[in-house]
Amino acid sequence: MTRAQAGPPFLTNDPGTPGNANWEINLGSMQTLAHEVSSYEVPQIDLNFGLGERIQLTYEIPYVLQASTGQQTQSGWSNGYPGIKWRFCGRRRGRVAVVNISAS
User: Fold this and answer.
1) Which band of pLDDT confidence, cut at 50, 70 and 90, is reported for residue 8?
2) Which of 17, 20, 66, 96 is most exposed by smallest CB count within 10 Å?
3) d(CA 44, CA 64)
4) Of 85, 90, 29, 19, which is closest to residue 58 (Cα–Cα)?
5) What is the pLDDT of residues 18-42, one digit of tens each?
6) Cα distance between residue 82 and residue 54, in whole Å
7) Residue 43, preceding peptide bond in cis (omega within 30° of 0)
8) 45 has which bridge partners?
9) Which residues have C-beta within 8 Å of that of residue 29, sequence separation ≥ 6?
10) Could you report the per-residue pLDDT of 46-77, keeping only the tens digit for each?
């Protein structure tokens, strides 16, 4: 079963981990509008790899298109964000999910 989680400002992170030696790959997009500047992250790539049942290595990187009034559209890969997440309480085998720690 696939489930999505979101809420304002629609920047979220899945509280679960993919499990030992499993990959989780998420693709998304995000739009940012400001006075005379628009940017689009298409795609925004989120790669996760499980180390055991409670730890995951994560790497996020967006491809950005930026349009400014009177300028040519610019595009390219933005900064990558490596990190690690440790789920020290979780709903596995009847337990309840409480907290995640992420660092990037």
Assistant:
1) very low
2) 96
3) 8
4) 85
5) 999 999 998 988 888 888 999 999 9
6) 17
7) yes
8) 27, 61
9) 40, 41, 42, 43, 44
10) 999 999 988 899 999 999 999 998 899 999 99
* In contact, 72 and 95? CB cutoff 8 Å: no
Report yes or no: 63 and 75 within 8 Å, Cβ to Cβ.
yes
The number of angstroms, rounded, from the C-alpha of 12 to the middle of its chain's C-alpha atoms is 7
Distances (CA, A) of 49 to 35, 46, 61, 102: 38, 10, 15, 14
Q: Tell whether the torsion through CA atoms of 89, 6, 38 and 67 is positive or negative.
A: positive
Strand residue runs (E) in the chain = 23-34, 37-51, 55-68, 74-77, 81-87, 100-103
Do 43 and 61 touch, CB atoms closer than 8 A?
Answer: no
Which of 4, 1, 2, 51 lies closest to 23, judged by CA? 51
**What pLDDT is recorded for position 77?**
96
